[in-house]
Structure formats: structure tokens, C-alpha cells
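Quick one - inputs below.
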Amino acid sequence: MNIIVCIKQVPDTAEIKINPETNTLMREGVPSIINPFDLHALEAAVRIKEDLGARVTALTMGPPQAESSLREAISMGADDAVLLSDRAFAGSDTWATSYALAGAIRKLGADIVFCGKQAIDGDTAQVGPETAEFLDIPHVSYVRNIEWIRDNTIRVQRLMDEGYDVVESPLPVLLTVVKELNQPRMPSLKGKMAAKKAQIRMMGKADIEADEDSLGLKGSPTKVKSIFAPETKAGRMMIEGGPEEQVDILIKELRKIKCL
Amino acid sequence: MSIIVRQDKCTGCETCVDSCPFDAIEMRDGRAFINEYCNACTTCLPVCPEGAIIETEPAASDSARKFADYKDVLVFAEQREGRVAPVSLELLGAGRRLADELGSQLLAVLLGADESEAGELVKWGADRVYLCSDPVFGKFNDDTYAGALLRIIEEQKPSIVLAGATPVGRSFIPRVAARLRTGLTADCTSLEIDGETGNLVQIRPAFGGNIMASILCPDYRPQMATVRPRVMKRGQYDAGRTGEIIHTDFKDLNSRTKVVETVKEVSEVSVNLHEADIIVSGGRGAGGEKGFKILRELAEALGGAVGASRAAVDEGWIPYSHQVGQTGKTVNPKIYFACGISGAVQHLVGMQSSDIIIAVNKNPDAPIFNVATYGIVGDMFEIVPMLTAKIKELKGQQ
Ligand SMILES: Cc1cc2nc3c(=O)[nH]c(=O)nc-3n(C[C@H](O)[C@H](O)[C@H](O)COP(=O)(O)OP(=O)(O)OC[C@H]3O[C@@H](n4cnc5c(N)ncnc54)[C@H](O)[C@@H]3O)c2cc1C
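Output:
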């Protein structure tokens, strides 16, 4: 069985802020990490490999420095790593990202494709389902448990608002995963050695037989027109006094604005 | 259209470098240089004190003419167990406003519900409802939902398509956008029509809520967006309003996936966090199950739901389904109580769009106070039970 795990290198968004005066992103010194959800995707793939036998390939589309994320994926149990990188991919929105990823996955071949639920920078959660559509394979989002895989079928649990659905799908399938699925392992010593030595396979636009007009900024239907800082809430109030007084003031305030 | 730096004007001050959301500005030989990661978003233009960054060609604004065929606004109306979901009414509110502005019709697609529910959509503002009551839509499968919606979009050619940014919408709508070769903006919090071009201006949070982005889809139709629940206002309900209900059949749709079971995880307070008007949340400061008991009592007194920060969930005090934040749910109730929650950014991104935030924390320096509408420095074990008692008293009087 071949499993591909799509990973994205992202800035640690917990540390990114926007300067409200200049409207600029303050990302100096913000570290790059593997998108946290993708670690769970990778862990799921490695566990399937351990249980049933599989070859796990980590795939990322990004600039050359994304290679470090691929090496990290190998240290956590991926067998191979592919860096899809080309100037032509720059500026891709989710449509163009998915188009390119699907091109690479088609070339590599996969029975299961794993994605994270969403990337913590773009936050769209669209790349997984769009990639599945381009590959013309089914997908299940928000997978929180994999019950079994047999006879070319997989049964998973899909997290919903009020519980979960148990869903069966034929292979090949694309799954996007949430954090309850598992606890990602730490890299092993052996893994770290392997990561150092690993050959990262490079792919560019010629390798995925892409339609030039569907790549990068040119191929992207959405355009980011501007960014700005979120509004901060006006009318902030610290309620002073002893506990009883504080509670009374709060109730009065809430009644004033008709919330009680 | 592309963005360039006039090398004769650039002073090398580096102000623009950090303004770029795409990391596309670098310094080369002491001057700013725009590399291939540029998205032509123009964020950097006003930032340059020298006016050295310019757009080489202004954006084309003839999309209105090019897309003359694409007129209406279409809303995907999600149902749950056959009843129209609250987010659908919010979408109709937003869709009605956009359709009126464009002078077009508001269409709705309703799958897996009956005619009376379709009638409700009309009363909430739809002009035309495409209804399919086939029980196949009672369970959510991406293939059937995407197939049905795709067919109606291809026939009706709407200019705008809106769906809820719910587990259902966020799962199958991207497939539809991929197939239609059009843009999809995720999780929008504001939608406006640009008066000049007629394009839909879509505002959404990104980078974990640290920034807001304004997004366009100028060259493709339809313009598609998922919309965050509880952000848009419902329209006027008009019991006398009439519209057309069109029964539609999709006999030949097949799903590769199969839902074999639907499990409801009913917790003690089984109010859906996404739909609650009031949420009472606890964090590490709740100290244990005992702390959550008093929070639950407040929630019950207010008819609200109980939420939690990741710290409390990781401690095992409350199930994950209650978790609010980056790795949990995004909520925006009318009132959010954050009790014993320090306010790490990962939690804030899940709740900071709540109308009113009330924070109770022992530590006066806790970052939660930066987003709180009302802040109380104090012990939640003292404050919360007192508040519950007084609210019960008040409600008893009414
Ligand atoms: C401020 C801002 C707002 C944006 N808004 C939109 C928008 O509304 N619509 C839109 O179409 N685009 C948008 N984009 C562009 C979008 O962020 C990029 O296309 C990005 O490359 C993919 O989207 P995402 O980060 O949301 O990933 P998601 O769709 O959230 O990622 C889900 C999963 O897909 C996989 N994946 C994603 N990217 C890669 C990759 N490069 N390599 C390998 N695997 C990957 C990972 O497994 C990941 O966990 C926006 C960009 C910015 C900067």
C-alpha cells in the first residue's frame, strides 16, 4: 500500500501579530513549523505502515527551504519525501495548490492520501477536498478515528458538530484529519539519522504535466486584495470592588445592554 | 497586473518588507525587490513612505460585462434532521441583502428536507427554492451533495454562491469550487459588493485570527464563499411572502462513501456550542471537575452551553467536544464567559468574535483581559456561584 501525506510548512501563527498602526505583519524571528494537523496525518500513516505494511511518502509544495519539514517528516517515520517546488507555483491559492498537489500525487500513486484538517496560516481547510476532486477520488473530512482497513475499503469516524459519523469509503481515498486521531510521536534516533541521509525527491512543473495557466498566481481564481488587523473590541471595562460588588455591577451592566 | 519597486525612488528603508503577507519582498543590494511569491495584493503600496512601490497595470474592472450571464445569488441551505439549520437563515439574510444590491434573485438549494421547510426559506427571503426531498440526502455524503449542487449551479449560473462554514459546508463546497474552476473564500465574516466593479468583497480571518484579509474572485464565476455561522444577521421573517418551490430530482447521483452510522455525543449540557447564545467556559483555573460543575450551573441558569480551553480538556476535566480555540471549535455567541482562562492566542482565535466577553481570572495580567468587554479580577469559585444565584433570583422574579 502507498500512502502520501501532504504537509505544509507554516509560520508558528501563535507568534505572529499585525502591527495595528502600520498594518504590517510582525513575523521577525517567528519559527517555521510543520502544520500541527499534518503531524497527526503523518502519525496516522506511520501507524498504518506498522500495522499493515505500507510505504509512506511525505509531500510538500513550497519554496526550497520547505525541505527541512520533509526531513522532519522522515525522522518521524516517513520513508520518502517529495518537494514540489517551482517558481511557477508561487502565489497559488487553494485551487492552484490543489491542482499542483493532485498532479504530483497522480504521478506518485497512492491508495490513501492524508491531509491535515487545515493549515494554521491560510486556515481554509480547502486543499484536502479540492485535491480529492482533482484526483477524482472520494474524501472524508475531519477523521478522528480509523476503525479498520480491509478488502480495499476503509472505515473511519468523521467528527461533526453534534457527534460523529461512521463512514466507509473504497480506496483510493483522501482523508483530512483532526487532532483527536492520535498523539504524534517524537522523532526516534534512527529516524533522525535517516532524515539526515535521506534523498529528497524534487518535482517541478514539468514533472506533473500541468497546464501552465492553472499554476501559481495566474492559475488562482482568488486574489488577496489587502490585509489588516482585526478590530479590537471597544468599551472595555474592568470591574473593581469586592466579589459581591463586582457581581452586582456586572449584572447591572448586562441588564443595561439588555443581555439579561 | 504586477507590483514593482521603482529602484530610483526606493531608499532601502525596509518598511515594506514586513508588510507583505506572502513574504515576497526582499532586500537586494540595499533596495526592496519583489520576488515571485508576490500575489499582487497591493498591501505594500500605501506602506512605502516614498511611494516607490507601484502597480504596473490597474486591475481590469470589466468583469460585470464579461459575466453578464451570471446574475443571481444562490444559498446552500443546510438542514439537520430535516430542519433548516440556523446558519441557513443567516445566509439568506446576507444573500437577500446582496441580491437586492445587485438587483437579482435569491435562490436557495435545500436537500433532504420537505416542502414546508422550503416554504420557510421563502419566508426568510428566498425567491426560488430548489428542493430535493430524496432521503438519500438525509445522510451527508460529499459526492451526492457536491453532485446535486453542481448541477443546479451549472443550470442557474449564479454570480455568488454562499454556504455555511460548517463541517458539512467546509467539506463538500471545495469539491464544487474545484470542479467549477472557480475561487472559494473560506470562513468569511463580511460580504459586500464593490460599487465600482460589482465584485464580491469577501473578508475573512487568517493566520489563526491574527489578521483579516480582503479577498476577491474577479476573473471567475460564480464567486463562492463559506460563511462563518452566527456572524451574518438573519433577514426579516415574512409569513406572507411568496416564492417558487422547484422540485428537483437527482436520481443518477451515486456516492462512493457511505455513512453507516451517525452517533450523537450528548454531553450533560447538550447544547450545541455553535448555536448557543451564551457560553460559559473554563480553563486551567477551573481546577477540576468541581470547577466545571459550578460553570455548568451558571450555564444552566442562563440557558447556555459549557465550553473549555485546551488546558482543561487536556487535563481530562471535560470532553474535547467542548473545546474552544484553534484546535477546537470557533464560536461567536452573544455572551462568552471565560473563567479561569488565561487567554492564550490559540484560545482567543476561537472566541474573540463573541459580542460580549466576560473574563474572570485571579491574575490581573492574564491576556484574556485584553479582549474582555468586562473584566473581573477575582476567584471564579467565589464570583461564579454568586452570579448564578443572583441570576436565578432575577429570573425567578420575571
Ligand atoms: C491571508 C490569506 C488568506 C487566504 N485566503 C484564501 C481563501 O479564502 N481561498 C483560497 O483559495 N486561498 C486563500 N489563500 C491562499 C492559501 O492560503 C494558499 O493557497 C495555501 O497554499 C493553501 O491554503 P491553506 O493554507 O488554507 O491550506 P488548507 O486548505 O487549510 O490545508 C489543509 C491541508 O492541505 C495540505 N496542504 C495545504 N497546503 C499544502 C502545501 N503547500 N503542500 C502540501 N500540502 C498542503 C496539508 O495537509 C494541510 O493540512 C489565502 C492566503 C492568505 C495569505
